């Protein structure tokens, strides 16, 4: 067994030990102030918000929990951390290598130009997460095959029941063969559908893996998630004085030209206590990040009370 594989297995075991003793179905934890912030943030917009306690895995507050449990959605760019982590752990990606952002970007007939400023022309792994660079991720995804990518998503739990509610759906992950399909799956645009509960649970485990002492190779991913909120594509979720880490995602559903927006993230970035997903049925990831900001702010305010 290689040292890298040993480190990964130790990290996964630590996550399991941190999580297993707290897993019960239909877990709820009353947080009235946080619930009020959730209801106000979403308002009358069609969507869903779920806030979890990272350690206990209890639902602290939520809105439209049925939608989070029973609708499959395309995850968009929220998958990028899992793709890059797989490549870094396997040694197929050098986190410090800079790659050029290429525009226009057309994959399988889809126009997927990056939403970040054209002034950002060359990126490393940290930058690719912070600025959500489609070009970078599409290029390095070709260093994997379809089975490797599917396994990365399976390990993240993106086809597994979370146990948070009864009767939840489970995601669908395809093992793709075509070059374009591989890139589109890596970008969360085709080949994979997940529930919001699966996605927020995957990020909860991601946050726990940092606390358990993740392999050094994947540190740029965690840096990128924090930088995404500090100055990148998820900056709308930024709260002064609070270290928030997170990722936006924008995607379309089959036969629907409208985009939906997702933000999923946790705080504090280095020792996460809460993890949240915000979903807007019509919108962009940036819009969802804006919804998350006042909820993080409320939690930060509450945690600082004497």
Could you describe the 3D structure shown?
This protein is of the alpha+beta class. It has a single domain (3-303), classed as 3-Layer(aba) Sandwich (Beta-lactamase), CATH 3.40.710. The protein has 11 helices and 11 strands. A 5-stranded antiparallel sheet has the order 2-1-11-10-9, sandwiched between helices. A two-stranded antiparallel sheet has the order 3-6. A two-stranded antiparallel ribbon has the order 4-5. A hairpin with a 2-residue loop joins strand 9 and strand 10. The model is unreliable at 1-26 (pLDDT under 50).
Ordered list of secondary-structure elements with their pairings:
Elements: H1 3-20, H2 32-42, E1 47-53, E2 59-63, H3 65-70, H4 80-89, E3 99-100, E4 106-107, E5 110-111, E6 122-123, H5 125-130, H6 134-141, H7 146-155, E7 172-173, H8 179-186, E8 192-193, H9 196-211, H10 219-230, E9 245-253, E10 256-267, E11 274-280, H11 285-303
Antiparallel strand pairs: 1-2, 1-11, 3-6, 4-5, 7-8, 9-10, 10-11
Short descriptors:
306 residues, Beta-lactamase, disordered N terminus
Order of helices and strands: HHEEHHEEEEHHHEHEHHEEEH
Counted beta strands: 11
Shape: globular
Q: Could you report the average pLDDT, rounded to the nearest whole number?
A: 90
Compact description:
The chain is α+β, with helices and mostly antiparallel strands and 306 residues long.
């Amino acid at each position: 067994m290689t040292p890298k594989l040993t480190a990964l297995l130790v990290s996964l075991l630590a996550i399991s030990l941190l999580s297993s003793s707290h897993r019960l179905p239909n877990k709820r934890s009353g947080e009235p102030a946080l619930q009020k912030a959730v209801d106000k943030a979403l308002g009358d917009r069609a969507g869903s918000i779920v806030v979890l306690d990272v350690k206990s895995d209890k639902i602290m507050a939520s809105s439209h929990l049925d939608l989070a449990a029973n609708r499959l959605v395309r995850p968009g760019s929220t998958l990028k951390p899992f793709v890059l982590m797989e490549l870094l752990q396997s040694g197929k990606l050098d986190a410090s290598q800079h790659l050029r952002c290429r525009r226009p970007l057309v994959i399988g007939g889809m126009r997927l130009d990056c939403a970040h400023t054209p002034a950002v022309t060359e990126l490393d792994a940290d930058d690719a997460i912070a600025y959500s660079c489609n070009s970078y991720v599409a290029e390095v995804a070709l260093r994997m095959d379809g089975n490797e990518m599917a396994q990365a998503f399976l390990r993240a739990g993106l086809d597994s029941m979370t146990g948070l509610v009864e009767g939840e759906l489970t995601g669908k992950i395809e093992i793709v063969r075509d070059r374009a399909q591989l890139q589109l799956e890596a970008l969360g645009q085709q080949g994979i559908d997940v529930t919001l509960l699966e996605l927020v649970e995957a990020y909860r485990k991601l946050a726990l893996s940092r606390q358990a002492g993740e392999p050094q190779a994947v540190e740029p991913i965690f840096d990128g998630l924090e930088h995404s909120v500090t100055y990148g594509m998820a900056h709308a979720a930024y709260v002064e004085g609070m270290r928030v880490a997170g990722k936006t995602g924008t995607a379309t559903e089959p036969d629907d030209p409208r985009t939906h927006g997702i933000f999923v993230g946790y705080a504090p970035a280095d020792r996460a206590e809460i993890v949240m997903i915000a979903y807007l049925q019509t919108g962009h990831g940036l819009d969802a990040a804006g919804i998350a900001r006042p909820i993080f702010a409320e939690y930060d305010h509450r945690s600082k009370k004497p």
